[in-house]
Amino acid sequence: MFKKVFIIICIAALSACGQLVSNAKKEFADDLSAAIVQHDEPETVKQALPAYLILIDSMVRGDDENIGLLISASRLYASYASVFVEQPERKKKLSQRAFVYAHRALCLHVGNTNVAACNLKQSSYARYEDALKKFKLEDIDVLFTLGSAWAGVVQANSSDWNAVAELPKVKATIERVLALNPDYSHGDVHGYMGVMQSLLPPAMGGKPELAKQHFENALAVSDRKNPMALLMYAEKYARLVFDRELHDTLLKELLELDPADTPSRLITVIAQTRARTLLAQADDYF
Hints:
Largest sheet: none
Shape: globular
Structural class: mainly alpha
Strand content: under 5%
Distance between the termini: 84 Å
Helix content: over 70%
């Protein structure tokens, strides 16, 4: 009897130790993300981040059912691919890795309770849309991670019609996040919708006025301190409808932001650099 009790205690201790290690990995990834977004020198982050991405890969490899770690890994890869990578093939591969991590996190999260959501590419649009309705507020982190990573894949493969054909499901995913919490992530959800509604001009079925409303909502939610919302509003909407006055006003407002007074110093500094380039090109564009 004593041996059996001892074995049970040992197993319980090992299980608790494993959970502590798993939690420590997630905390490290979260702390790394927090440190990155508050850095104010993009080139340092650009040069340092690849090594940490490989480190995150190794952590996932040893703990591939850690949902929180998978979410952090997906977000790091998606951010790096969208912000720092310009080569098309690299962007495709890194965006796909971000999506794979997000998809794995979603499937682990839903288990057997929402198979259509996990089989998102095989499911019809109608079935996937029904599956999204099952998600609740407590599911929002994994759902937004999936939607944003998926949007990155579509953007990186914009010349591939098979990838572009997935856009309606991506939009449905982001719309579900909006329905659960329209204020989530400092207005980033509205920003994603604004960009997706700006992909086509009105003559080709685009809905720029919906894009404008989403960008305005993103700025309202963030107290006009979301740098990417200001940048995308100018670059994706104002340029689409050839509104020079709005374009310049938004970019100048972005340049007046204090990076220390925004959710991400790093993104603000990067967005301000892009804003200066767009303003310098404005005479040629308009």
